Amino acid sequence: ASAGRSSLAGGAHSAAVHSAAAAGRVTVEHDLDAALADLDAIIMLRVQFERGSGISRDYRASYALTAARAARLPGHAAILHPGPVNRGVEIDGDVADRDPRSAVLEQTTHGVAVRMAVLDRALA
Q1: Among 19, 33, 54, 72, which one is most buried in terms of CB atoms within 10 A?
Q2: Is the pLDDT of residue 118 over 50?
């Protein structure tokens, strides 16, 4: 991303959001592939099959963070997913587990503790 610009893309059925902080502008991009090269972070959301969520046949082609898409991200872009991961659906296993930009394992490891701290603070 360029100086003074922060970018974040969401996963499934989300739009990529580019925010030009200095100019106070937000741009929504509905084509994930068009936004990849400019992102500072990308967060993939989990498809909740246990809740009856179905996905279209072209889901992976349209929304998944594949190894090919990850290769197009800037070297500094954080790769995020709240877990649990449906590997090969929202994100390729190698991207989640082995890409040095991935914070997926740390996110899932610390997620319960963070939620507990937020609840403790909210209920205190």
Answers
A1: 19
A2: yes
